[in-house]
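Re-running the complex after MR caught last week's input typo. The corrected sequence lines follow. Everything else is unchanged.
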Amino acid sequence: MNRRFVSDGHLVDSGILPKILNVIIQEGAEYRIVAFKIGQTNLQPSHLEFELLCDSDEQLFSLTKKLVQLGCYEKTLSEGLIRRSEIDGAVPDDFYSTTNHRTEVYLDGRWQEVANQRMDGVIVITDRGPECRLLRDVRKGDRVLCSSESVRVFPPERDRQSDIFSFMTGEVSSERSVDVAVAEIAEDLAEHRAAGRKVVVVAGPVVVHTGGGGALGDLFRGGYVQGLLAGNALAVHDIESVLLGTSLGVDMKTGRPTHEGHRNHLRAINTVATYGSIAAAIEAGALTRGIMYEVVSRRIPYCLAASIRDDGPLPEAETDMIKAQARYAEIVKGATMVLMFSSMLHSIGTGNMLPSWVRTVCVDINPAVVTKLADRGSSQALGIVSDVGFFLRALRDQVFRGAPEKAESRS
Amino acid sequence: MNRRFVSDGHLVDSGILPKILNVIIQEGAEYRIVAFKIGQTNLQPSHLEFELLCDSDEQLFSLTKKLVQLGCYEKTLSEGLIRRSEIDGAVPDDFYSTTNHRTEVYLDGRWQEVANQRMDGVIVITDRGPECRLLRDVRKGDRVLCSSESVRVFPPERDRQSDIFSFMTGEVSSERSVDVAVAEIAEDLAEHRAAGRKVVVVAGPVVVHTGGGGALGDLFRGGYVQGLLAGNALAVHDIESVLLGTSLGVDMKTGRPTHEGHRNHLRAINTVATYGSIAAAIEAGALTRGIMYEVVSRRIPYCLAASIRDDGPLPEAETDMIKAQARYAEIVKGATMVLMFSSMLHSIGTGNMLPSWVRTVCVDINPAVVTKLADRGSSQALGIVSDVGFFLRALRDQVFRGAPEKAESRS
Amino acid sequence: MNRRFVSDGHLVDSGILPKILNVIIQEGAEYRIVAFKIGQTNLQPSHLEFELLCDSDEQLFSLTKKLVQLGCYEKTLSEGLIRRSEIDGAVPDDFYSTTNHRTEVYLDGRWQEVANQRMDGVIVITDRGPECRLLRDVRKGDRVLCSSESVRVFPPERDRQSDIFSFMTGEVSSERSVDVAVAEIAEDLAEHRAAGRKVVVVAGPVVVHTGGGGALGDLFRGGYVQGLLAGNALAVHDIESVLLGTSLGVDMKTGRPTHEGHRNHLRAINTVATYGSIAAAIEAGALTRGIMYEVVSRRIPYCLAASIRDDGPLPEAETDMIKAQARYAEIVKGATMVLMFSSMLHSIGTGNMLPSWVRTVCVDINPAVVTKLADRGSSQALGIVSDVGFFLRALRDQVFRGAPEKAESRS
Amino acid sequence: MNRRFVSDGHLVDSGILPKILNVIIQEGAEYRIVAFKIGQTNLQPSHLEFELLCDSDEQLFSLTKKLVQLGCYEKTLSEGLIRRSEIDGAVPDDFYSTTNHRTEVYLDGRWQEVANQRMDGVIVITDRGPECRLLRDVRKGDRVLCSSESVRVFPPERDRQSDIFSFMTGEVSSERSVDVAVAEIAEDLAEHRAAGRKVVVVAGPVVVHTGGGGALGDLFRGGYVQGLLAGNALAVHDIESVLLGTSLGVDMKTGRPTHEGHRNHLRAINTVATYGSIAAAIEAGALTRGIMYEVVSRRIPYCLAASIRDDGPLPEAETDMIKAQARYAEIVKGATMVLMFSSMLHSIGTGNMLPSWVRTVCVDINPAVVTKLADRGSSQALGIVSDVGFFLRALRDQVFRGAPEKAESRS
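Corrected-run output:
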């Protein structure tokens, strides 16, 4: 039960080589290195070839899966094993499940790249080639990739430039100055805007409660962000803060609880419901600033995904989770940077859809949120533990310092 | 702009009296006590009458709202102000928004109790009397209660018995022995079962990850719980742990990551999808134990509310949030005890629907969850900071110690 | 076993009245209200007289203790019970242990105020009158107050002005804008400086790691703070950041880990050790800015209390905890405001020494710290959950905005 | 400015190889692999030789330091650079500061192992060979190792057996079943006892508050632990719980706050002070069970390090931090396993003294504690996030299940 595997690339500095060898030992199998050529300098790739020695077919089967996820592929190339789905929404038992890394399948005698890469999907072979698909979107008769024998995965290589992402990734600590992170992200935002690339923001209502709503609105207004993924609560509290000057019933200016108490969010919902929609309220001149104002009036794509704990929800909220996930996926498609502010639920939801090569930054006052995001597979996320209100205002100031003409209407 | 208010009940030991006077001072108004008769012993109610002196109509209007929430009502009774809704899903601007406390409205010359009490609703006057309703369920033409002048709220009085709820409520601390709480809740569960009352559990997947799944299943099997409110993930990880012996890809017995890695939850979903549903998988003999097995095979009412971060979801998951909220509300109706285990999202969602007189216990390893639940209005919740796996097993052992004949199949 | 108690003051709006009645019920005793006169307006005090009915002497004894802590005193005044200590550092079994609230003892026919009020002390009757003393400072032969029968405690009344302390106390939440708190504290600092009152800062090394060191130094330089209580680590990391430009080995400007790695704090310690002391290093021109520079060169009283986890420690660190506590107590004496930044250990240590009428603000990114401080008795502390680096810089900016001439050397 | 380095050992599966190459890139230097021979199987070591190309002497100097910490050493061996200290407690500027990994110095033509390895020390060359020493213990005239050119560090290799330490290290998650960890640690404890090896426990007062005191006492009584490192508070609350049946004033049996309130810890201190010491109280028969009873009566070495926040402290507490650190170091010397329960301060203090090859387990309900311990250099610590009371009782039960004859007096 031996099998020979090959792996190429930046195996050493990316830390993948030890992972390969360790997984074999942990599973109780053995390896014999056949060849290893290390890149002489950091620009040259390495090449590894090894013999895997297993006790059983089951062990071989399971180890192959794991090795493939680490970028190994079998030396003796064989065509991808394809089976047809027999039921809508289900696939054969030995289906290949995807990671969020770039993936190729050996089909028709050549490696073919998988489209729409995301984690926790299956691969369907269509006329256009192999594609990632959610289990629920598989239809009876679809040709589903099974086994992992003919798959090649490209785990992300460490960014060779010494930028913030290369050295901060994986660090989660509240005890570091976040100024450096603010500066680097501001620079990234400027570059993205200049290059016409897509930045998407995921945001929770804490953005509003901590006084970061104005700064986030400014980033939309300045053309730095091209999509908003949130829940119903972000919009409700944003609109409450604009219409009634409170957030969770606390006066945003004086910090004092106000007369309407903590029920003000219901008044905001009722106001929007009276107009019929956020868009209608804007059109009628009832809503004239804030995050949702910037997003809706500038026709920036957004989705407010409803949840079980929502009041309202607002007319614009998407209450069907299948549709909400589809809309999220559509908005996030093609994004090269995603900023997540204080929303574990929507951040994990978005992280599930992102390929691992998208720059992802997650800012939260709670270190557990960042840890959880990485645990759930979005290991590319740079975690910053800070006060999100302060952070957003510092980011806005830094961004507009580089482009002051945009800053006229800061709040 | 003076107005005379009255309040009766256990104003002193419940701590309501200082709240009444402080809110007046905080809002910048003044009061003059007209009469105060304190209950001579703790069994006798107190009676308060005071003159409220305001500077403006706006202040009077806003303070009245707050005083009503604290159980005051105007001395000169007047009929409730009713306006008709002019649009589906919206109400007049000055609508009365509900708390989760028992509430009465003065209508037709008498105090009438509001049905279906919950927080963040409006009150509609129907032929059956006043009823709580969600904003979105209001129809054009409905008779909506406006202003708070003719409303009387009964904030919860401290339980006079010295039980765990009376002295632990409000405490959130990981530095207390939880043994006492386990013992008291076990006793409560036994009493509820004996009396045929309804207990509902809200649970997150951490129950499974921490090894508490077997214990929770036993509580359902033993007839101690009559409803389950959860998300898709609880069911997925429960079924994964039963079918594949792993939780998040970690072997539940050895604690070692297993060959299928963290994608095992997808295999669980695919298995269920292949059978068509959890119920079908049980019927086919493919699923023979675990939380969902106990719940589905015993026809215990449940709802799995989907969310934006779900994989799958399972066929039984409710993907529409409007329907999920309706189903949650239906299941929780009439419950006299709700136990919440490690799910902030679903706990807050459930808390929103509960009247404040339902015993609510929230167990989580993260103190912030308990704090947040109370912040969101479910101030009756008893928070216990502990390891939920250990807690559930201790609770199960304690419950079955009192009723050992039920304990045959513990796992 | 009945006894008659009296209480006067703002019993209602301070929330003390319900506490009095509830403690009686919780202990299983009963009360009968003899008289209750509520203050007609919020400026008038209330008066309560009640009969306490107990089952046993033990219950009476224990309840009396608790009632006294809530401000009740026995109607039939009797002289304080005094026993002599028979051993150095120990007192008779029934000794009275102090709270941090203002306290009086009935001696020589009149109420006498206790000096040096702090929690967890005993009361010794000296020639100057009753004084708080630590157990360990009691000497054989000292006259120690025993029992609580002749003690009168004045729990803090809610500040009647609607300032930040009156409405924020007790709130711990990261989801509120901290801008309001910054503004109010800045105003307080300005008032304290103008009035020549004493402000003391407690600070942990996170102040430096998060980039708040310059701002804190500015507050000392500006004359806004008159004492510093910290540990060895604050000074080490402050000096490291100034001498080597790093904090925990991370470059403060670029955010990148630097060549000397995380051992730079040892180099800072060695440098100071080479000069002999921080003061000598300053004198030699080796240390020219930073927190310790400002404090030492301005002769602002400070104490660096060593701990079991210290490296070094620096020559100025006080390694004996008895002496460190004495020095802390000396520095904090007479302070009317204490600001605590990210140091649970030193904040609790300081909190133990503070009378409850000192304004205390605790800023930490971790909500548990604030909760713990209150749990340990410093219930007067206003907790602010935020990023302490951002917070300090915002506070500095706000303070100097009101007094711009002081701002020249901000860093 | 080139230099040739060599490294041998399990470079690949331990993950050290990528670290070596990455640190060179991050510092802006370059490398050229001269030779790399990978171990053909996981039992064979690898061998690496590379040319380091630097731009400046400073870069070379700093990179050498870092490479040495990763186990590299210069190919052209030269004698260690030694300078004499000119002042007590200080060393020359270019001193070598230690890690907690096994270290050798090239002296007298051969590699010599450093004694008393610990982090953040310096190396003094004595007649017995090189030794780790604290900066403050260096005396004028001592021969201090400078520069890192002739140093060889052995970073810990991953344990090749697939035990809990090899796969759990580095994981910090509350969402895993801790049962596996309990079982493995129980087995380890049994093995240690059988082999006569030394286990030391670090414990905070939360052990008592959460009801784990009896279980910890049992472990001492059963001969499973040979040393206790704690603060004053652990002993105070342990003695309080035994003498008065409360912990922080809460009755351990009923969970109810008791008559003496939260001042009971003062009574415990006073009782011990009356007897003169814990030992005297035990001898007098006043203290007959609990953690301190087991430890003191069995003459198990212990140290109670005082801190700035202590009440008392107890006579046995060590109030001088220099002495406390020395006593901690003495007790921990030779330990092969250290268990840390809920005490960040004492755990970090102990971690500072431990060589990296000592098995270290840290149990705390707060994930931040475990993270911080690793951040401070004790990266070998296995973190378990759980309720420490439940954990200790489960551990005790598991330990005594394997050795039931010891279990007679569990409480």
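None of the earlier attempt is carried over here. The two ends of chain D are 67 Å apart (CA to CA). The longest helix of chain D spans residues 179-195.
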